[in-house]
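Input (VanZ like family protein):
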Amino acid sequence: MGLVTRAIWLSLVLAVIVGVATLMPVSSLPDAVPGSDKLHHLLAFAALAFPMIAARPANALWVLPVVAGYGGVIELIQPYFGRQAEWVDFFADAAGALSGGLAGWLAHVCFRPNRPPLAQATD
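Output:
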């Protein structure tokens, strides 16, 4: 299984986890998770964008809008699951997608196979 195929599967699994976690009723959520709700949104959507862009940076052209749009759709349907829709959550989702995209691009640049060696310093 190639790198892009693994990234697709990982992203699909993460999308399901993010969807379930963000649509669970507030009363079902654990109290012991540290950090703010906005930080959780940012980290979740960064994790969602990261694998596909790390595998192939050109994917950013469609991954970033899809991940941000997924966050928007979740915010729109949250009231039907006993949650509140918040614009700030959507902005945290979009910021997370951008952060994950940047981290994925950096990971690709730094750790890609067949990366040319760093230039040797000469005297």
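Residues 54 and 105 are 5 Å apart (CA to CA).
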